[in-house]
Specification:
The complex is a heterodimer.
Chain A lengths: L5 E6 L3 H10 L6 E4 L41 E4 L31 H5 L9 H15 L23 H14 L4 E2 L37 H7 L3 E3 L3 E7 L5 E7 L5 E11 L2 H11 L25 E7 L15 E3 L15 E6 L4 H11 L8 H8 L3 E8 L8 E9 L5 E6 L4 H20 L4 E5 L36 E3 L14 H17 L7
Parallel strand pairs in A: 1-2, 1-8, 2-5, 3-14, 8-16
Antiparallel strand pairs in A: 4-10, 6-7, 7-8, 9-12, 9-15, 10-11, 11-12, 13-14
Helix pairs in contact in A: 1-5, 1-10, 3-10, 4-9
Chain B lengths: L4 H14 L16 H11 L4 H17 L10 H14 L3 H13 L3 H6 L23 H4 L8
Classes of the chains: A alpha/beta, B mainly alpha.
Chain lengths: 534, 150
């Protein structure tokens, strides 16, 4: 079945696809977005019903391999100590993200210059700053001005509440002289642009039933759709096709019934995340690109970066009311962010303070860590940990390495028979040293805050949330896949806008930067429309 | 899999052994709270657990009878706890399975949730109140020079 040709075809309706659709809508071009998942129903999110805590092991789990949703595709991540976490639907992984929303710092864009590692980006912080500002307004970012870890920046909403837990940790960090600050959070702390205010439900990472968390199905998409963008759900792209002129001329995709469709387009924009984007390019190999579309550099799928996570949990002797408030958004610290020659690793990490756990999660955490016996001693032990835990994650900057990569699995396919991705990843010595340092400092910070004892796990296996680097950006076509504004060197009307194009990973959550970069690329497309393919 | 009446009684007693009533009496035991039904629902959805539980219950009952008791549930808590520890050596999956699912069912139960100082309700739509933040705690951080490199 062949659809009417369009001007712009966006593949993927997540963080990047939504921002691109919104920005390009003002051009009045005919824009279609193909998304393999569905629109989400906020009334279906777990916090609306009893038993909500256990749904993180089921339909609202992080791993597409365990959720049992036919809208997902399988990922072979058995050759990685970190498992992939993503979501397919309108909003993409913003449906399940924590909405921790920091920017990259200026130095993150030039670590070759500063620290003689990896590569500099072909753009800088000042170039992206106005797009960070624009994204803050569109997503509704909550935060507090005056953080010495960043250049001045404006956010439209007041910060998330610290709560007793955040204040407790803040006091401890003050004793140590450490930096900390209320997290920039994509959460409406007041009613904002038609979204209800956050009411501190807790587990943002299972979807926000209140609609206060800025997943793009409630931010960019409603505006983009009203402006005329067509969002076609349950549409899974098999391959991008190439014309005789060497330009992409459309895609082949399957609908919910498995019927094959052909969609032609003048511009194709990929927004499928750091795993899905290289997968699609590799699945689009043809006679001109036998190793994958736009892959003359050989770098499609290479240089996969996560943020290796460590998890430190402290148990306190008083209740912290940690079950209240956004799980992943409380306070953060960048005390150990920059390279210190006295350490045995380069670059650094952030701390993100997590709030506490619900009753079931507390019991299962106690069971798994050996702090909660069954039998006659159970209740006394449970009372020692219930509502008395505070978590802290160490978010390490990963460095790009070609050996860490996404390829096509020789056997595994999705429900439409499309080859699935395979991930090969190893932690570098640098990351391992950084994790060790971060866990030790994390324990120190929690003890200074009053923690009686701590537990730690590093790397954290299910923490493959941030997927970056697999179609990196650069000016040299031999050393990068896309140019400084997201256009593929090899296919002039094919753009990539997700985390795949990151040159380096920084040590903070990437969604804000993915969207700022998207808005920047959208402006470059608009400015260059008359000679876009030259 | 549907447990017979004797198996259900044994399971209730096993659950009460894993999660007994609290000493002050504010929390009931898991068996007394009716978590047998929760475990039966788990068994219905997890065929892999059925033989683990069935053989575990049979082993517990057999061990009780070897001790001269009529049934497992007639033994005192400490004796039942010793039996479960003994049979877990030969059936290593039994206690982890029952403990995991027992905890899940127990800490979702409205009566237990109330003893934790919470209302027995899902978070939405009522949510929770958090007191105003004391942002003066940030004064030492505000006083620091810039921490980033250009």
């Amino acid at each position: 079945m062949s659809e009417e040709p369009v001007d712009v075809l966006i593949i993927g309706a997540g963080a990047a696809g939504a921002a691109m659709a919104w920005s390009l809508a003002e051009t009045r071009m005919k824009i279609v977005c193909l998304e393999q998942g569905d629109w989400m129903d906020p009334d279906d999110y777990p916090t609306t019903r009893a038993g909500w805590e256990m749904e993180r092991f089921g339909r609202f789990g992080f791993s597409p391999n365990g959720r049992g949703r036919e809208t997902d595709y399988p990922i072979n991540d058995s050759s990685s100590p970190i498992q992939i976490s993503n979501f397919n639907g309108v909003g993409g992984s913003t449906i399940l993200y924590a909405a921790h929303f920091p920017r990259f710092r200026p130095g993150d864009f030039k670590i070759r210059t500063l620290d003689d590692v990896a590569d500099d980006w072909p753009i800088d912080y000042d170039t992206l700053a106005p797009y960070y500002d624009q994204n803050a307004i569109m997503m509704g970012v909550a935060g507090l001005a005056g953080d010495p870890a960043y250049p001045d920046k404006d956010v439209p909403l007041p910060p998330v509440p610290l709560g007793k837990l955040g204040e407790t940790i803040g006091r401890g960090f003050n004793q140590l002289g450490w930096h900390w600050w209320p997290s920039d959070s994509a959460i409406a702390t007041r009613e904002y642009q038609g979204r209800a205010a956050c009411i501190n439900l807790g587990p943002c990472i299972m979807g926000c039933a209140q609609g206060a968390k800025a997943s793009t199905d409630v931010t960019y998409w409603p505006v983009a759709v009203r402006a005329g963008v067509e969002l076609r759900t349950r549409s899974r792209v098999r391959e991008i096709t190439l014309g005789e002129d060497g330009l992409a001329n459309g895609v082949v995709y399957y609908d919910a019934d498995g019927l094959e469709h052909r969609q032609e387009a003048a511009i194709v924009i990929l927004a499928c995340n750091g795993i899905g984007t290289p997968r699609l390019l590799l699945n689009s190999a043809n006679k001109d690109f036998p190793d994958g579309l736009a892959n003359r550099s050989g770098l499609v799928g290479k240089n996969l970066m996560f943020h290796p996570y460590g998890m430190v949990t402290g148990v306190f002797d008083e209740r912290l009311e940690g079950y209240k408030g956004p799980t992943g958004c409380c306070i953060m610290s960048q005390e150990f962010y920059e390279t210190d020659p006295a350490r045995d690793f380069v670059r650094g990490y952030s701390f993100e303070i997590l709030r506490g756990m619900g009753p079931v999660s507390t019991a299962l955490w106690g069971m798994s860590t050996g702090h909660l016996p069954w039998g006659v001693d159970h209740h006394a032990a449970y009372d020692e940990i219930w509502d008395k835990t505070a978590g802290m994650v160490v978010i390490c900057e990963d460095l790009p390495e070609e050996r860490n990569c996404v390829s096509l699995d020789p056997d595994l396919v999705d429900s439409d028979g499309i080859p699935a991705p395979k991930v090969d990843y190893r932690l570098s010595d640098n990351s391992l040293a950084m994790l060790e340092h971060g866990v030790a400092r994390g324990r120190e910070g929690l003890v200074a805050s009053g923690s009686i004892f701590t537990t730690a796990e590093a790397p954290l296996p299910p923490a493959g949330w941030h997927l970056m680097g697999t179609t990196r950006m650069g000016r040299d076509p031999k050393a990068s896949v896309v140019n400084e504004w997201g256009r593929c060197h090899d296919v002039k009307n094919l753009f990539i806008i997700d985390g795949s194009i990151f040159v380096t990973a920084a040590a903070v959550n990437p969604t804000n930067t993915i969207q700022a970069l998207t808005l920047y690329i959208a402006d470059q497309i608009k400015k260059n429309l008359t000679n876009l393919f030259e | 899999m549907s447990l017979g009446p004797e198996e259900q009684r044994t399971l209730a007693s096993v659950l009460d052994t894993i999660l007994p009533p609290s000493k002050q009496g504010q929390r009931a035991g898991a068996g007394g709270l009716g978590l047998v039904n929760h475990i039966q629902e788990v068994l219905a959805e997890s065929p892999i657990m059925q033989p683990i539980i069935a053989s575990g219950l049979a082993a517990a009952q057999a061990a009780a009878r070897r001790r001269g008791a009529g049934d497992f549930e007639t033994l005192p808590q400490d004796a039942r706890q010793r039996i479960l520890e003994e049979i877990s050596a030969e059936q290593p999956d039994l206690l982890p399975s029952l403990t995991f699912h027992g905890y899940v069912g127990y800490y979702q139960h409205p009566d237990v949730i109330q003893t934790l100082g919470l209302e027995p309700r899902p978070p939405h739509p009522k949510g929770y109140e958090i007191e105003e933040s004391d942002l003066s705690l940030l004064d030492p951080v505000r006083a620091r020079p810039k921490l980033y490199r250009e």
